[in-house]
Amino acid sequence: MVDIQLHTGDILTGLYSCTNTHSSTLRWAQQTAQEEYTRQLEGLTREDAGLRFSAAHATNAQLVAFDLEDVGEKMKEAAPGVWKLFDDLLSANSKTNTMHKRNRVRRREAASEIRGAGGPARERDGENDGDEGPGDVVIWTTAIVEARGM
After folding, report:
1. Rounded to an integer, what distance in angstroms lies between the CA atom of residue 62 and that of residue 53?
2. pTM for this structure?
């Protein structure tokens, strides 16, 4: 007998990937995540979380002792899912920029390979200005396929 607990990820991926169950699986995942994040955020507001701070009643000693890194560590421990979500959201632009840089390097390498194979150097979005446009993907793909004789 197959243990479902050992294959939960595979089962959920299968349900999410299937056309008939995709929408309901996505709704379930979103609702479940929302409930978990809400539970974690509510936990941060409890007094025992050690994150309550009243600026109106703060003493000089409390202000001096305030450590933002300590607050971050407490949040990370008490609400790891929310912490990871915030980290992913805040670093999304950085990851996108890294992906775009990587793609530019790959296109340059492909152009160099084409030039080395005696093929034309094709940079097109209307100009050879280093600015990639929407037509570049099709043109580069076509040039690579032609150069490799595919």
Report:
1. 9
2. 0.55
Residue partners of 81: CB distance under 8 A and separation at least 6: 33, 36, 37, 40
* Position 53, amino acid: F
d(CA 38, CA 18): 29
First to last CA, the chain: 47
Helix ranges (H only) for 79-135 are 80-116
The DSSP string of 17-63 is: HSTTTHHHHHHHHHHHHHHHHHHHHHHHHSGGGT----GGG--HHHH
For residue 80, what are its two tokens?
């790891």
Chain position carrying tokens 């994040």? 37
What would the pLDDT profile of 23-51 be if each residue is shown by its tens digit? 999 999 999 999 999 999 999 988 888 88
What letter does residue 59 receive in the DSSP assignment?
-
Tokens 């929407």 sit on residue: 134
